[in-house]
Write a structure and sequence with these properties.
The chain has 301 residues and is mainly beta. 7% of the residues lie in helices and 24% in strands. The N and C termini lie far apart (64 Å).
């Protein structure tokens, strides 16, 4: 039995994780349940007798995440990516009020994203990509106002992109690709003033490209390819002075590309598989030729 070197409640929570996820067969389990102080256990960091970080990525955990992890009330980082975790994400994780980093990516988790995760007001990074999650993106995630990185890619999420995500003022990266998201891109995403990367590729998004995306002054990468977006390219995208990569291919977009795009110093630009065409302008043609990586249908890079 574990001693009292750390909080008894913390030790109980860790013990629950060990047995729920086939602890005896983990790749590494140094000290687990053998040493009195959880600070001496592989992947566990403690401060003042409380568990503050749990890093067991790629360690062969197999089974369900136990709800008892909610007892780790001083936990700031929970990294369990790259394992064989199954079942639902416990809504009780929303009780980890000091959590700043959460990574459950690369597992086999199913069910929905618990709206209770919207209570993690200090969370700065969240990744649940490469799982089997279904259902919609909870609007409650818009309450994570400290969030810098949000990745929900490579799941089977449905429904629309919640406009509440536009409240994530500190967000730098939003990755929602390879899901089954539908509806229009909410113009509220144009409020994400610090956003550097936006990837919505390979979904079922419809409607126009919102002109409000032209307000994303820090944006470096914009991936909208592989959707069902229609209409033209808004001239406001030419205001994205930091943009380096723009992928629009594989959408039923149409019309003439706006001349404002020549203000951009792009490294990559793709609009193959669309009905878009370049304007009959020598300056635009020269700008297009200077882009190192380009695929424009009849004008490959």
């Amino acid at each position: 039995m574990v001693g009292l070197g750390g909080s008894r409640s913390d030790a109980d929570a860790l013990e629950a994780l060990f047995y729920a996820t086939d602890g005896p067969n983990w790749a590494r389990r140094d000290g687990w349940l053998d040493r009195a102080d959880p600070a001496d256990w592989f992947g566990v960091t403690c401060q003042h007798g409380r568990v503050t970080k749990l890093v067991l990525a790629g360690n062969g955990l197999a089974g369900e995440i136990p709800s008892e992890l909610a007892r780790l009330t001083e936990l700031a980082g929970l990294w369990l990516h790259g394992n064989r975790l199954v079942g639902a994400i416990p809504p009780e994780l929303g009780q980890l009020g000091k959590l700043e980093g959460l990574s459950l990516a690369g597992n086999e988790l199913s069910g929905g994203i618990p709206p209770e995760l919207g209570r993690l007001v200090w969370l700065r990074s969240m990744s649940v990509r490469h799982n089997r999650l279904t259902g919609g993106i909870p609007g409650e995630l818009g309450g994570l106002t400290c969030l810098v990185e949000l990745s929900l890619a490579d799941n089977a999420l449905t429904g629309g992109i919640p406009p509440e995500l536009g409240r994530l003022a500190d967000l730098e990266g939003l990755v929602l690709d390879r899901n089954q998201l539908g509806g229009e891109i909410p113009p509220e995403l144009g409020m994400l003033a610090g956003l550097e990367g936006l990837s919505l590729r390979d979904n079922r998004l419809t409607g126009p490209i919102p002109r409000e995306l032209g307000q994303l002054a820090e944006l470096r990468e914009l991936y909208l390819d592989g959707n069902r977006l229609a209409g033209g390219v808004p001239a406001e995208l030419g205001d994205l002075s930091n943009l380096e990569r723009l992928w629009l291919q594989g959408n039923p977009l149409s019309g003439v590309l706006p001349m404002s795009l020549i203000q951009l110093e792009l490294e990559a630009f793709r609009f193959d598989g669309t009905e878009l065409c370049a304007p009959e302008d020598a300056g635009f043609a020269e700008w297009l030729r200077r882009i190192p990586e380009r695929e424009v249908g009849g004008f490959p890079g």
